[in-house]
């Protein structure tokens, strides 16, 4: 079976919650809370105890929060 190496900024690259939290500069616990309450980046549930994020979904979530002033900032 051939393995494909994805570049670090490939939108389809899968990241575990620790890697996604590091990219976002948030804690793993914050990601877990967002998954439970909603409001965080889209995620993929691999199994009962395994979650992954795509680099593209995390970057899209970041870009959706780009604002010009504080009154435009979303609450998460």
TrEMBL record:
Q: Which InterPro entries match?
A: DNA-bd_dom_put_sf (IPR009061), HTH_17 (IPR041657), WH-like_DNA-bd_sf (IPR036388)
Q: Which residues form the Helix-turn-helix domain?
A: 15-66
Question: What residues form the membrane-spanning segments?
Answer: none
So which domain of life are we looking at?
Bacteria
Q: Report what the protein is called.
A: Helix-turn-helix domain-containing protein
Q: Which organism is it from?
A: Aliiroseovarius pelagivivens
């Amino acid at each position: 079976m051939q393995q494909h190496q994805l570049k670090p900024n490939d939108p389809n690259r899968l990241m575990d919650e620790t890697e996604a939290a590091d990219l976002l500069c948030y804690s793993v616990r914050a990601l877990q809370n967002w998954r439970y309450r909603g409001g965080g980046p889209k995620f993929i549930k691999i199994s009962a105890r395994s979650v992954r994020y795509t680099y593209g979904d995390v970057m899209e979530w970041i870009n959706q929060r780009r604002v010009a002033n504080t009154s435009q900032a979303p609450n998460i």
